[in-house]
Amino acid sequence: MQVELRVPDDRIGVLIGKDGEVKKRIEEKTGCRINVKGGVVEIVCEDAVGFLKARDAINAIAHGFSPEVAMKLLEGFRILEVIDLSDYVSDNAMQRVKGRIIGKGGRMRKNIEDMLGVYVSVYGKKVAIIGEPDAVNIAREAIMMLIDGSQHTTVQRFLENRRRDLKMRSMDWQDVL
Length: 177
What we know:
The protein is an alpha+beta fold. Helix content is 56%, strand content 18%. The strands form two sheets. The protein has a three-stranded antiparallel sheet with strand order 1-3-2, with helices on one face.
């Protein structure tokens, strides 16, 4: 399998890392070969799972995550979800909506991350989320509520209720295992 991805110029250095260490780590953990030419990153891989993991890790770095956080996609069962804000808001409202998602002093974003065990990046016109599938879906819902204009307190209550549901579900699985 082979694919080429566009990575913003200011994220290429982060992807490569000091002395190429980030690129090497992704290659070692996925079994893929990664070639960087300008703002284009080519991934070549025989293993489908390794290919998808490498693609997601590179996309995560391209969307503003640190390499340490992006590498979490290579472990366990975590996914990357990207929300393109330009699909939902005009350029005039972009800064305001990004500010609502981040919250005063970064509190709203931090609450979403802490309550659900996810990572959230607001970069350019996109919001990216890394985490376990159920938690990412809830985080996406919360972010969509903020985009639609819901108050922070309403979103906070939603997160608390959904976190409780997640905990109950995980407790049910504990009983089965």
